[in-house]
Amino acid sequence: MQFGIFSVGDVTPDPTTGRTPTERERIKAMVAIALKAEEVGLDVFATGEHHNPPFVPSSPTTMLGYIAARTERLVLSTSTTLITTNDPVKIAEDFAMLQQLADGRVDVMMGRGNTGPVYPWFGQDIRQGINLAVENYALLHRLWREDVVDWEGKFRTPLQGFTSTPRPLDGVPPFVWHGSIRSPEIAEQAAYYGDGFFHNNIFWPADHTKRMVELYRARYAHYGHGTPEQAIVGLGGQVFMRKNSQDAVREFRPYFDVAPVYGHGPSLEEFTQQTPLTVGSPQQVIEKTLSFREYAGDYQRQLFLMDHAGLPLKTVLEQLDLLGEEVVPVLRKEFAKNRPADVPDAPVHASLLAAAKKKEGVGA
Questions:
Q1: 127: buried, middle or exposed (CB in 10 Å: 19+, 13-18, 0-12)?
Q2: pTM for this prediction
Q3: Residue 62 reports pLDDT greater than 90
Q4: How far apart, in whole angstroms, are the C-alpha atoms of residue 123 and residue 49?
Q5: 143-170: b (≥16 Cβ within 10 Å) or e
């Protein structure tokens, strides 16, 4: 099972000081956080994609390529790649290039994002969001697997004899997660292709997450990719820790109250009761995270949101120390207990390459 962090890259004033970091400071902070993630033994760093203030990560592959050059083991991913407004040809090229540079330490999460105006900015219609996601990914899937593609669809110009370059490393495309919070059509899409399904359940109660994950698992089996238990599931989460839970609540409250993603709504206490957000001691984070298995089953990837709402870099790095030293080692041990042997590990380039070679051998 993989553990890591994801960043939405928001530039938010620190409510305790009133200071707003510059865009350069925030970008550099995201890099420092990724490097710290590898240092403390985490498996994955993922960045979002946004094209509007107060967010900075408009070019995920640029950032991830820079991080790839400074890391050795970390899997580099996105927490949203906008399959609706990016050209599938450019996604195919950009991520194959990143995959080559990073020696395969790359996967990608497809999503529609949470900013409606991005559609007209890139010449698309938000009313076609699901249709764009379905058609664009169908083309991307082919571009990574066929050397020469002839294609015609509704939302872009046709392709005739087109070859996307560079080709995926070792002929194996990056693993794809389809991220969605509320759209069953995306769970269906992930299941159809046998890809992963990532439910970023940071805003939603457990019963909603359970329904979405169970739908994906059932449809994964329906399409013949394996049993429901063998489907590839990832979950999001949010934590803020201090050794003493009261200190964590007191320190995090002003950040929660003004956070761009959930501020000015339910109280901190209401939010932690109703969603996966955990504000407290490392032990409380362990207990809450382990409870995810009760409604999601045995899953493959757990990502935490930790660097948002104006939290200073020093504080985030302290959080990562706690996560890497006190939380993740226990989670690895506990999640491994009673895990059925037929539940697959999180896909990585080496395992995907081995599976491809095995399939070639069977077909030979």
A1: exposed
A2: 0.94
A3: yes
A4: 17
A5: bbeeeebebebebbeebeebebeebbbe
